[in-house]
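Re: [ENG-882] Designed sequences occasionally contain unexpected residues at chain ends

Forwarding the minimal case from QA. Structure tokens:
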């Protein structure tokens, strides 16, 4: 039986406890418009890709060639930048909302 992308994401999060905890602390795990768990700023497919790449990057290559590792590291950095941007945008929006509410208070 084929697993859905949601099941793959949940399975990867269960395998990578430290990464999942970090994502939860950053409030980066969200539900998209279809109710699928994703990382803020990433599509479901990108979320799965990030969750697969992260442990490979942290383990310093594993079975990858130098060229494969470089490509994976670059892609990981690109996805991480998207996450960081989404989290920064969310923080700015939250602060803007807080300032508006305080001014009305």
């Amino acid at each position: 039986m084929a697993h859905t992308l949601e099941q793959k994401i949940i399975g990867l999060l269960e395998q990578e406890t430290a990464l999942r905890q970090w994502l939860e602390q950053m409030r980066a795990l969200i539900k998209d418009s279809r109710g699928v768990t994703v990382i803020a700023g990433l599509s479901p497919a990108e979320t799965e890709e990030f969750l697969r790449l992260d442990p490979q990057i942290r383990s310093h290559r594993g079975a990858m060639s130098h060229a494969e590792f470089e490509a994976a590291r670059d892609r990981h950095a690109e996805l991480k930048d998207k996450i960081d941007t989404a989290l920064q945008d969310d923080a700015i929006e939250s602060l803007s909302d807080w300032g508006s509410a305080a001014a009305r208070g």
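QA comment: On inspection the terminal residues look reasonable. The first strand starts at residue 29 and ends at 31. Proposing we downgrade this to a documentation issue.
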